[in-house]
Amino acid sequence: MQFEKHALQGKRIAVLAADGFEYVELSVPRLALRAAGASVEIVSLHRGRIRGMNLTEPSRTVGVDLTVEEADAQSYDGLLLPGGFISPDFLRQSRAAREFVSSMDVANKPIATLCHGPWVLVSAELVAGRRLAGWPGIRDDIVHAGGTWRDEPLVHDHNWVSSRGPQDLDAFVPAMIELFARGSVAQLRGSMEGSAALDRVSSPQADEPPRLAVAATRLLPGPGLVTVAAVAAGTALGALAARRGMH
């Protein structure tokens, strides 16, 4: 991951994430962005801190700089949409988040995303006619929304750069820096230039889910007594509230 130390000097980058983001997909790019001289702000659905994940296991938190209602999309020079199984699902259900992303794209500002991050682009109705990579599990969402999903470590499309997941960070981070530095469309290199221009056919569906993710899920510990009691109490309170609403 080599890039000019001051490549992003004076640039202001928004990272749009919510609870359940994939920690490495935010922390590693953020570190690289800051090293390149950028000012990086975490934009989210609520104030305070948001919880990261390592696949299916809770990880560290990061502080939120602005809520999506407070943030002005036009004041940023680029947008990073990290993935994770949960965060993009929360974001895609937020009108404010969808409008924030749409404003960035309409202004042709650079957007870098990976893993499940493109879910937000799908729900913002921006992927029709676009070409991008993402986690295999969201392949059908992209295709059904009119986009082209590629099973490649890095895909460029106009003002977007995208990757499949954490395994592609070595390719994703330098491409993100280059895209944000140029402010619009990064130059494609080598054989990728031809494929990006000509290949508009989606890669086939996966034959099975990623084994690492499946293995990580199977290794999760079961709920403790406190968790079971909390869930039971929440269910009981929900049922009681529903009964009262019927009367």
Count the E strands.
Answer: 12
Largest sheet: 7 strands, mixed
- What is the C-alpha radius of gyration, as a whole number of Å? 19 Å
Distance between the termini: 62 Å
CATH superfamily of the largest domain: Class I glutamine amidotransferase (GATase) domain
What proportion of the residues form beta strands (DSSP E)? Answer: 15-25%
Envelope shape: globular
CATH class of the largest domain: Alpha Beta
CATH architecture of the largest domain: 3-Layer(aba) Sandwich
Number of domains: 2
Q: What is the spatial order of strands in the main beta sheet?
A: 6-3-1-7-8-12-11
Helices and strands, in N-to-C order? EEHEEEEEHHEHEHEEEHHHH
CATH topology of the largest domain: Rossmann fold
Q: What level of helicity do the residues show?
A: 25-40%
Structural class: alpha/beta
**Number of helical segments with 4 or more residues:** 9
How much is the average pLDDT?
Answer: 87
| Low-pLDDT segments | 186-198
The multimeric state of the shown protein is single chain
